């Protein structure tokens, strides 16, 4: 009975819409969004009341819930994990020029598929093909939705109904259920595994070649390493072997970098240029891993193969949109001058940020956090990760801001930071403390981090 009268006392949607706080929400979002959100908030409160788990409902609580409910679901977060290419947090951030290019491409009509010289229909890839060829040394190039799509398209075009030889040591699974054997099946190609998990020899490949063979596939071990008693056939040797039988070689590089990171003390990763130079016929890689561009699957290689892929009807389903194209072109243009790429592309800047600079940023945040009540802060040494399945063994030395809050355990603090503040802060726990890695947050985000902790401490919830 009492619950029923509580339900009756709930305001109506119309009443909520008349509250002054609601007006500002309508101005920021839209009436439809707010009305819809108000209904959901009221429904949920009604359920909570009737199930007996509510004593009272205040209007300020209704407004707070409404605020949460109207927020767009895709939200900015602060990445304090130190994982640069965090797949769950959207991988690479775009350079300023790439952001501008996207803005232009979406606010105006563009020559996406229009040849301005001839006035006839153009090809969307032509806008980046020249750049990709210049940077990689390949004859031809095209771009699809992501690298998984690139691998699928290449296998389907070059090997549907025929056999593809892969070393057992390279049958990788990338996060999000991209598995080479599954992609192979989807493409219609038939997988022929050779060698063993730890060792594959040239003769293993040779013995597997038959008249049904369409392709030799090399997959870069992007997110794992096999160490100890191991051997794989180096790419140039695979190419030499394939030439003997007139077969193409494809390499799925995964990350695919245009810069040799070993020059900067990071682990060696084969570059796209080297792979093309070694004679590989088709090379595929991601746009948003080490390249630091938008999500995309880039294919470079011999013209005859790339042209066949462009004509494959499957390509229509995998093609990139104009925002991606705009961002990719702007990103690639920076690579024309390596120094520009290193200065402008956030992924590269984060990966190569000098430890002194990280320490300075950590100290600055620590100093500001120390001003808060109920918090213990220290700056400690630690490691960041590349992420995105790239350079899995790389340990990038960094300085971490380690925080403990007396009233909260580390998992409660992590939860509060990601669910109770705006923008949410994603951090990690280490040695019983919450640690924040300045490699992946910027100087400009420091005040937001401080505000996040201030809010968590003020709420005092456990
Ligand atoms: C990451 C990766 C992929 C998938 O690339 P997406 O761009 O995420 O689709 C495929 N192959 C390898 C070896 C990878 O590392």
UniProtKB/TrEMBL annotation:
Species of origin: Ammonifex degensii (strain DSM 10501 / KC4)
Domain of life: Bacteria
Enzyme class per UniProt: transferase
EC assignment: 2.9.1.1
GO biological process, one term: conversion of seryl-tRNAsec to selenocys-tRNAsec
Family: Belongs to the SelA family.
UniProt feature coiled coil, ranges: none
Family matches, as Pfam families: Se-cys_synth_N (PF12390), SelA (PF03841)
InterPro entries linked: PyrdxlP-dep_Trfase, PyrdxlP-dep_Trfase_major, SelA-like, SelA_trans, SelA_trans_N_dom
Record protein name field: L-seryl-tRNA(Sec) selenium transferase
Keyword Transmembrane appears in the UniProt entry: no
Annotated keywords: Cytoplasm, Protein biosynthesis, Pyridoxal phosphate, Selenium, Transferase
Span of domain L-seryl-tRNA selenium transferase N-terminal: 8-46
Pathway note: Aminoacyl-tRNA biosynthesis; selenocysteinyl-tRNA(Sec) biosynthesis; selenocysteinyl-tRNA(Sec) from L-seryl-tRNA(Sec) (bacterial route): step 1/1
PANTHER family named among the record's database cross-references: L-SERYL-TRNA(SEC) SELENIUM TRANSFERASE
GO molecular function: L-seryl-tRNA(Sec) selenium transferase activity
Subcellular location: Cytoplasm
Function as written in the Swiss-Prot or TrEMBL entry: Converts seryl-tRNA(Sec) to selenocysteinyl-tRNA(Sec) required for selenoprotein biosynthesis.
GO cellular component: cytoplasm
Catalytic function, reaction form: L-seryl-tRNA(Sec) + selenophosphate + H(+) = L-selenocysteinyl-tRNA(Sec) + phosphate
Needed co-factor(s): pyridoxal 5'-phosphate
Modified residues (N6-(pyridoxal phosphate)lysine): 289
